[in-house]
Amino acid sequence: MALYTGTPTSRVDGHAKVTGAAKYAAEFKAPGLAYAAVVTSTIAKGRIARIDASEALKVKGVLDVLTHDNRPAMAARSAAYKDFVAPEKGAPFRPLYDGKIVFSGQPIALVIAEEWEIAQFAATLVHVDYEEKPHSTDLHARREKTFVVKTPEKARGNAKRALAAAAVRHEAEYFIPIEHHNPMELFATTAVRDADGKLTVYDKTQGVQNVQRYLCSVFKMKPDDVRVISPYVGGAFGSGLRPQYQVVLAVLGARALRRPVRLVLTRQQLYALGYRPATIEQLAIGATTDGALDAISHEAIAITSQYEDFSRNDTGWSGQLYKSRTAKYSHKLVRLDLPTASDMRAPGAATGVYALECAMDELAVALNLDPLELRLRCYSDRDQHNDIPYTSKKLRDCYREAAQAFGWSKRSAAPRSMRDGSELVGWGMATGIWEALQMESAVRIVLTANGHAEVACAFSDIGTGTYTIMAQVAADQLGLPLDNVTVKLGDSTLPDAPVEGGSWTAASVSHAIVKTAAEVRKELLRLAKKIPNSPLVKSKPKSVSLADGKIVDEESGHAVSVADAMRGGKVVDRIERETTHTFKDSNSHARNTHSAIFAEVRVDEALGVIRVTRVVSAVAAGRILNTKTARSQIMGSVVWGIGMALHEETMIDHNLGRIMNANIAEYHVPVNADVHDIDVIFVDEPDDIVNPLGIKGIGEIGIVGTAAAIANAIYHATGTRVRDLPITLDKLQR
Ligand code: MOS
Question: Residues 344, 310: contact at Cβ < 8 Å?
Fold first, then answer.
């Protein structure tokens, strides 16, 4: 049955992508296309006293300048701007709505011109007077001004007392700075308005239907009058979960001018969109002298905007991952004059587990235990929060296989005890954990008599390989060669899907395909039975499968070709079915993916230059649908983990309330020279409880714990513990 599922299949969209045939939001054309550019605020807080576009309007080729004073109508209530992924609490940002400034880089005017260059130039001529108010953008300066958001997990036992009584204690504060999304594809929208006022919007997004419903709400339009298309996405990883302001502005422009408008935000403007919130993580762990945990306390302080409460689960992983008698958590927010933070690959876990896994390493040092041995001593086979089993948890296998591949047993325990020439060598490890989520989604399959199937749903493929795994699963379910399957995605008119995120797409869409394919199979059997003297006349739907273009009765061995069934049944040439796969969690089991990461660093003793020379990441994520695209996901995540550990940091000039390094020259990310040997292992993790196909999803697990493994390796190499990321060479020297 499974010819394709589980194999290292190359991307079915790979050819289109590398040849440039794949079209992105800013590449769609329309007759009379106009180009827009955004003017952004230079202050962080206050209001616009006066905005003067007269000079910009004088430039030849400028068509219009829209501001809050003259824009077309849009919804007034902030609730109208609430998309599916918006924080529960708060009033979402309304772009160009009024003169109030709530963050630096806020869009305040839209210049539309015949050419992009003209729009860009004219945008520099828009004159703005502000009434400025004092702002604050510094988490450290305001860390006492917190408010509490709902803590994701409840406490168990009396952690405070257990901590006080513990034989060995480790307490420390860790810090993760703001990190900004820097996907290759810039945020862009091409908004095309037809003569009846209907809109076709090509947008960079992780959720076409989320954007579609949002636009309908903001512009009070009927669902049928707005279509959002996003067939390819050049990286998103959370930045495209919520509709971004460029989609609103492009539509405003198209409605004002009654012609198509394209808006591409600049790289710099991207820094006023989503980011990983800077977070202070306070960890306290109490243990017995032989490494049993008495208590874990994890308190996070993260930033949010003045208008929304964004928070994720940073702390709950701590009392789940290891067996600990007691646990307590708190998650607090600080309001700053910045845009609302956003999801970014493994939101919450990437930051929270970084702190936990560094703290565990420090505890191991305090206990004089090998860090892997400590993890094994407090290994938990049950979910600690609810005292329930996991659907599967092959974390032990991750530890064993990764340690073996890495050569961990050859580690000499003392810091600074391993070196190679002028470089100190350090080996560190960490654990990763993420959720195995599933969402309701629908799939439509159209099977034609010539043996071709089209499989469609409104999910996006943000580069993770969704097109490919859908084709693989459908090919197997329908008994067709992979090349005979076409996948359609990223169009709001396709069957319903949520945003692509949370690593839930593979499991969700695969089961929707299975369910829909079963309907197709049932219909084929019904038709095949109508053939005169049909060999399948007695076959039951349950014993029938599709293989090699045939309907096969697995019990009798009898078969009828799909083409014969269709013709014999006189249905003509196509069968179309659409079903929705819903998912119910009985909460009888915990659903998680796990990983073990081992890292080697080499640190130049004189200069402090750090190189991450080897990483082994072993992942337990149920059935891997495509070992090639999955490996790419984990490798990409590990590279991001290297960036988190060593490079990424958004820097704000707190006097101006403005980001200083809003470009990829000064916002550092790993380049090829920073990435060496990355070994990805998928451990065998059969799981028929999580879902029938045993799929857990792998988009996010790869980053969780990676920065901690590197930080721990740096400690091992140098004897210096740096707890605030990124670990730059100046911090090693102090
Ligand atoms: Mo992911 S942060 O849900 O794209």
Answer: no
Ligand 1 mean position to 656 CA, how many Å? 31
Identity at 287, one-letter amino acid code: A
Residue 74 has pLDDT above 60, yes or no: yes
Q: What is the pLDDT of residue 236?
A: 93
Ligand 1 centroid from CA 187, angstroms: 16
First to last CA, the chain: 60
Place of tokens 């040092």: 365
Q: At CA 38, angle to CA 32 and CA 44, rounded to 5?
A: 165
* Residue whose structure tokens are 């190499």: 717
From the CA of 343, give the closest atom in ligand 1.
Answer: 2
Matching residue, tokens 């009584």:
165
Q: Which residues line ligand 1 (CB under 6 A)?
A: 206, 237-238, 241, 343-345, 347, 501-502
pLDDT of residue 733: 80
Q: What per-residue confidence (pLDDT) applies to 152? A: 80
Residue pair 310/277 in contact by the 8 Å Cβ criterion: yes
Which ligand 1 atom sits closest to the C-alpha of 240? 4
Residue of higher predicted confidence among 567 and 583? 583
Q: What is residue 338's predicted lDDT score, i.e. its pLDDT?
A: 98
Tokens of 604: 């130049």
Q: How far is it, in rounded angstroms, from Cα 575 to Cα 569?
A: 11
Is pLDDT of 192 > 70?
Answer: yes
Give me the phi and psi of 37, to 5 degrees please: -140, 150
H helix count then E strand count, the chain? 16, 33
Q: How far apart are CA 346 and CA 179, in angstroms?
A: 13
Q: Are the beta carbons of 548 and 481 closer than 8 angstroms?
A: no
> Which one-letter DSSP state was computed for residue 12?
T
Q: Per the structure block, which two tokens stand in for 157?
A: 């036992």
Distance, in Å, from the CA atom of 419 to the CA atom of 549, rounded to the nearest integer, reads 60
Tell me the C-alpha distance between 40 and 490, whole Å. Answer: 30
Distance separating alpha carbons of residues 23 and 34, to the nearest angstrom: 19
The alpha carbon of 77 and the centre of ligand 1 are apart by a number of angstroms equal to: 27
List the single range of 162-171, 348-357, 490-499, 529-538 with lowest mean pLDDT.
529-538
Is-cis flag, bond preceding 107, omega within 30?
Answer: no
Torsion angle, alpha carbons of 186, 274, 231, 113, to 10: -40
Read off the pLDDT of each residue in 336-350 and give the average, rounded to a whole number: 98
DSSP 156: B
Going by pLDDT thresholds of 50, 70 and 90, the confidence category of residue 457 is very high
What are the residues whose beta carbons fall under 8 Å from the beta carbon of 105, sequence distance 6 or more? Answer: 40, 41, 268, 269, 271, 272, 339, 658, 659, 662
* pLDDT for residue 734: 58
Q: Please give the Cα distance from 516 to 510 (Å, whole number).
A: 10
Amino acid at 455: V
Question: Can you tell me whether residue 39 is helix, strand or coil?
Answer: strand
Ligand 1 atom index nearest CA of 699: 1
Catalytic positions, please?
700
Nearest to 122 by CA among 189, 65, 43: 65
pLDDT one-digit tens code per residue, 113-153: 999 999 999 999 999 999 999 999 999 999 999 999 887 88
pLDDT band, very low/low/confident/very high, at 1 (cuts 50, 70, 90): low
Distance 350 CA to ligand 1 centre (A): 12
Helix (H) or strand (E) run with residue 474 in it: helix 466-478
Beta strands in 143-222 (DSSP E): 146-148, 168-176, 179-180, 188-193, 199-203
Residue 390 per-residue DSSP state: B
Ligand 1 binding pocket mutation candidate from 230, 508, 698, 700 (most atoms within 8 A of CB): 700
Phi first, then psi, for residue 155 (nearest 5°) are -70, 160
Model confidence at 599, pLDDT cuts 50, 70, 90, reads: very high
Map 227-239 to HEC letters: EEECCCCCCCCCC
